[in-house]
């Protein structure tokens, strides 16, 4: 009798375990999306004096040389993505394949008369390793209309008064499996509410007039260092705002 009772108890326990809703066999885990960051913000620095209606009075271009603008943008974007729970993977890529020249020009904000968005999937397939992550955040050079001037990338503008540093870029979130653009957005000005008018339709920061070179071709090392520091400082809040607007928490 005791043996039968023990057998019955064991059967009931086994049945209960199999029906337990939190059984380890039925646990499901959500895979953490892998993502890589690609940055190609600018190939050069543009200095331009602009009058009150946006006409360019004079301009000059300098090579970026050993500036680490893309490294700054990538590392900050990767840090923000990790905070959001993404599995950020290092990627190697041919930066020139994502330059404005390779993509048909800097990306405009968008509109009926603007050029189509570049097709980034084939570029990722051919110029990025690894090329099979779940997602890619691609930051590329952008342009904004400013009267008769169309500045793009990294630039120092003199808009009648104080010099203005700008870092104009467009962000694409690309599905690494289908190649489709999940979302894309033009980087916005910082700290502008609905009642404020931005001087530039993109990330910008005013600087002291001592940064502006006289003549425009005679930029000193200290002036360049001050400008580089301002661009790097500008990218941190700008990338945070851009990623917020991409709604990366929705997965």
UniProtKB/TrEMBL annotation:
PROSITE patterns: PROKAR_LIPOPROTEIN
Endpoints of the signal sequence: 1-23
Keywords: Signal
Name by which UniProt lists this protein: Uncharacterized protein
Provenance organism: Dongia soli
């Amino acid at each position: 009798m005791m043996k039968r009772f023990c057998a019955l108890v064991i059967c009931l326990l086994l049945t209960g375990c199999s029906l337990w809703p939190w059984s380890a066999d039925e646990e499901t885990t959500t895979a953490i999306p892998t993502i890589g960051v690609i940055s190609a913000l600018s190939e050069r620095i543009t200095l331009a004096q602009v009058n009150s209606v946006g006409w360019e009075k004079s301009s000059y271009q300098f090579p970026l040389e050993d500036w680490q603008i893309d490294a700054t943008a990538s590392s900050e974007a990767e840090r923000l993505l990790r905070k959001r729970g993404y599995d950020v993977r290092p990627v190697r890529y041919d930066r020139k394949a994502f330059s404005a020249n390779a993509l048909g020009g800097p990306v405009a904000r968008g509109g009926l008369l603007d050029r189509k968005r570049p097709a980034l999937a084939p570029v990722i397939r051919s110029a990025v390793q690894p090329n099979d992550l779940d997602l890619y955040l691609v930051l590329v050079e952008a342009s904004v209309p400013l009267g008769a001037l169309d500045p793009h990338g990294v630039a120092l503008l003199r808009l009648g008064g104080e010099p203005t540093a700008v870092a104009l870029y467009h962000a694409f979130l690309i599905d690494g499996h289908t190649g489709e653009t999940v979302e894309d957005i033009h980087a916005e000005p910082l700290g502008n509410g609905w009642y404020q008018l931005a001087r530039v339709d993109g990330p910008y920061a005013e600087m002291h007039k001592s940064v502006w070179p006289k003549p425009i071709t005679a930029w000193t090392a200290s002036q360049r260092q001050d400008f580089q520091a301002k661009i790097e400082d500008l990218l941190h809040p700008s990338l945070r705002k851009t990623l917020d607007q991409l709604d990366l928490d929705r997965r």
